[in-house]
Amino acid sequence: xxxxxxxxxxxxxxxxxxxxxxxxxxxxxxxxxxxxxxxxxxxxxxxxxxxxxxxxxxxxxxxxxxxxxxxxxxxxxxxxxxxxxxxxxxxxxxxxxxxxxxxxxxxxxxxxxxxxxxxxxxxxxxxxxxxxxxxxxxxxxxxxxxxxxxxxxxxxxxxxxxxxxxxxxxxxxxxxxxxxxxxxxxxxxxxxxxxxxxxxxxxxxxxxxxxxxxxxxxxxxxxxxxxxxxxxxxxxxxxxxxxxxxxxxxxxxxxxxxxxxxxxxxxxxxxxxxxxxxxxxxxxxxxxxxxxxxxxxxxxxxxxxxxxxxxxxxx
Length: 315
Known about the structure:
- This protein has helices at residues 2-26, 33-40, 83-89, 116-129, 142-153, 178-183, 188-192, 198-207, 217-227, 232-241, 272-281, 297-300, 302-314, and strands spanning 45-50, 53-61, 69-72, 94-98, 135-140, 158-164, 259-264, 285-290.
- With 315 residues, the protein is of the alpha/beta class.
């Protein structure tokens, strides 16, 4: 009996030592907000008090454009994923983008409600605060899911819809970023809120790119450092713990707005089969597949995806 107790003590001590080593090597404190703001919120950035948050956004370009383009990013990302699009589009259009609650510099929802319905309410309140009554609405991944749900709930506010590797149909991923996997595993996801190695972020970003060589240190640093904004790691876990309405996609066929379905041919997270489902269900859409591109073509293949977008906007 005494021998068993000694063995248990040694095992527990070993586990504690391993946990300590992991914490020392891979544990990260939240980065100070002012430091993140100085690096990722230049002069063009603004902050809006909204629903108990201070929402980071940018409103750029042609102020006479009465129907602005509104860009919504995906899970774990930020408004920066649209940098190349915004730089190009603002020459002719008013372009608005924001950090969704849980990501970027905005920080978490105060009530930790990360349902699609709550995100739709957030977008409605955000646009109302800017006095926008109608827009061209674009969303990538989670942002695409929010965009088509918003269009269904507020059809009079959407002139055109752009779905970029959008979520919404039942999942059938061919490959899932490791950060997404960890965030759904009990116990491990609790550790993830303070032990979040940079290499996991790098692996996760490369997972959604087709051409891994395009994933630079600058890109990885941005994703990694913005994840260290206070509350974001817990919010990341909270969002991936939410399960959206199972049959919501059955209403997609009711969307009447002209819609561009834009997809990376090599998307493994939301494969191209889902693009075909949108194409089949939407009564008034244009399907464009971007070759040699993954889950975020506006970031990985900005010029190719912009060509399709500009053609759609002109039509």
